[in-house]
Design a protein that fits this description.
Blueprint: H1 13-90
């Protein structure tokens, strides 16, 4: 940011304070505008970050739901295997050759 002094001599204390006030007001206006631009930029970044986080949460939920369904399927398969193993242990003659995939 460049600050250019007023051209011409300062003839009195009043002129000095007027020039000082003009420069101060100009700097405050410039800083306010720069702050507004930064605020708008940060607001855009926050919006993008929220969208990215929301997308990530949706993907994670979808992945967890799929994994839970797969886990339930495997649990059912393991329960079936345990039941077949228990039945084989308690009544080995109850199975015929070729039934339930046993040869």
């Amino acid at each position: 940011m460049d600050i250019h002094p007023v051209h011409g001599p300062v003839n009195s204390v009043k002129d000095f304070f007027v020039h000082l006030a003009i420069i101060t007001i100009g700097i405050l206006i410039a800083l306010s505008l720069e702050g507004l631009l930064e605020w708008a930029h940060h607001k855009t970044l926050v919006h993008e970050a929220r969208e990215n986080i929301l997308t990530e949460v949706r993907k994670n939920k979808e992945s967890i739901d799929n994994e839970l369904a797969e886990l339930k399927k495997r649990e059912d398969e393991l329960n079936h295997i345990v039941a077949v193993a228990y039945q084989l242990e308690t009544a080995p003659n109850s199975f015929k050759s070729g039934s339930m995939g046993i040869d």
